[in-house]
């Protein structure tokens, strides 16, 4: 046998084995990194450190919390970089946490004075918006409590071409990251509250899905709304349905 071929084949086999070993060991490690963390930035003028609480989801969605110079608290949502579409400048996103009521950022427009927005800023891939006007030392702004104690952040947004999309962002370690950013202790979860969050009721799941159907009356085709309602009826009539199976049925792709 040609020794050169033998060496080439041996090296190729070794490289393949090493590559497979890397992929097997890297996958769990990567999964563990899908959690909130603190990013330390530097003020360009004072050179003082600036802390931001951030997360990058598995699908590439980003969500940040940051303090501005006037001591206001802002949040930022960004679409994945690989998506070529831009976020809509006409319709602002809606977000909610677990089974809590949704927050429609369109309401910020009603608070604006003048033509130039001051409570939100839209970029090509995302939006920054104000959460709290003035932070006080040692206090947690009410809008942050659900982020710190919740499990999943849901964001419904529209693209510049009018398509509606939805992102799910985990809140794992958001409590600790936000607390570190604000220089406070993490919030404590009551056992009964944690159990309640883990099991969404049929009413909550149904309400969010029917809201989604209603949105399709304005941004979808004529058949989208009917198909959405038909799926809701079909999933609702399935016997022995749990909250989780009901949710999976509604979100199942055709």
Write structural notes for this entry.
By secondary structure, this protein is α+β, with helices and mostly antiparallel strands. The protein has 3 domains: 32 residues; 162 residues, Sandwich (Immunoglobulin-like); 56 residues, no CATH class. It is built from 8 helices and 10 strands. A 6-stranded antiparallel sheet has the order 1-2-3-4-8-7, covered by helices on one side. Strand 9 and strand 10 form a beta hairpin. Helix 6 runs parallel beside helix 8. The radius of gyration is 23 Å and the shape is globular. The N and C termini lie far apart (55 Å). The N terminus is likely disordered.
Q: What features would you highlight for this structure?
A:
254 residues, disordered N terminus, 4-stranded antiparallel sheet, 10 strands, single chain, Immunoglobulin-like, 3 domains, alpha+beta, 6-stranded antiparallel sheet
